[in-house]
Amino acid sequence: MLNIYRSNHLGNTNRGGQTSSYRWTLPHFPSGKDKRCVLRIRYNISTADYNSVTTDHTNNQQGDVQSPIQGDPAVTVVNGMPDLRLAINTAQFGRVFQDRSHIFKLRPRQPAGIDGSAKLYNMNVRGKRGNIVQAFPAVEYDFAPNELRIKQGDLVHFQWTGSNTHRNGNNAAGEGRQGTDRHNVVEMLARKGNFPVAFEDSTMWDAVQVVWIYHGQKNLPKSDVAINMASSGYYQCSSQQKCGQESVDRKPKLSDVLDNAPASYEGVVLRFTKKGTYHFLCTRNNSFSNRSQKAAIVVQ
């Protein structure tokens, strides 16, 4: 995985002005068993002033060996003119920062009734709590991807992870209880707006089929799935006759900023059956002029 960063703009790629990312196609294992995956991410910064492939520890300065790179060297630009000094720290000339490892599981498709040949896209959340300064060099909350283009009949898995104890080292600007992450998905008519659309006027829910949902009741009405996604999984449905204690009828009232909702959402897999463009936002974090947490799925 390689992205070239734009100089002096940590985190932005060299072309397009977008935050560095990688479009990853995860394998499907037909064994029907969970697969444990280890992901290692490293941020490398290197110079082209020496051959990075053939230069190694044997080139370290010792005895008669002269290192190809010297610290703060004096260089001659024009004969007869005093030398000029370059600002070079040899410890920074070929270096790896932010060496991170993550472990996650790839779950089998068969128990969820998802065909092995089906295209399944992930709709997740990136970034962290805070304003643009507090979050740097990460980004503020955003859906990832914030524009997903798929074919009619493709599947989308909505899911995200969050925390109740973020580690920004400051209070960090944002809605709801300090130090917490919360997200939800509510349809809107267009990304240039900031208000959601009522379920009765929605278009996305007429264009999807529920293929899988974390609590197993995929035959619930789509209005209940909309409630589940809008509440970040706090409610499973509207009526206690359908989901008992997990219903709007029985459960304590949801905080209007999702404070008592789960920080993470295991999610739902939807099959998009109709062509169109479907917009949605997060009601808690989308804050006009401060941060935008909106996205669109374009079905072609």
Question: pLDDT below 50 for ≥5 consecutive residues: which ranges?
Answer: none
CATH architectural name of the largest domain: Sandwich
Query: What gap, in angstroms, lies between the N and C termini?
Result: 28 Å
CATH class of the largest domain: Mainly Beta
Number of domains: 2
Protein name: Protein DD3-3-like
Region (Disordered): 1-21
InterPro entries: Cupredoxin (IPR008972), Protein_DD3-3_O-glyco (IPR053320)
Provide structural commentary.
There is one protein chain. This protein is mostly beta strands. The protein contains 3 helices and 13 strands. It folds into 2 domains: 40-49 and 69-106, no CATH class; 108-299, Cupredoxins -  blue copper proteins (Immunoglobulin-like, Sandwich), CATH 2.60.40.420. Helices cover 6% and strands 26% of the residues. The strands form 4 sheets. It has a 5-stranded mixed sheet, covered by helices on one side. The protein has a 4-stranded mixed sheet with strand order 7-13-12-9. Strands 1-4 form a two-stranded antiparallel sheet. It starts with 34 loop residues before the first strand and ends with a strand. This is Protein DD3-3-like. Residues 1-21 are annotated as: Disordered. InterPro entries: Cupredoxin, Protein_DD3-3_O-glyco.
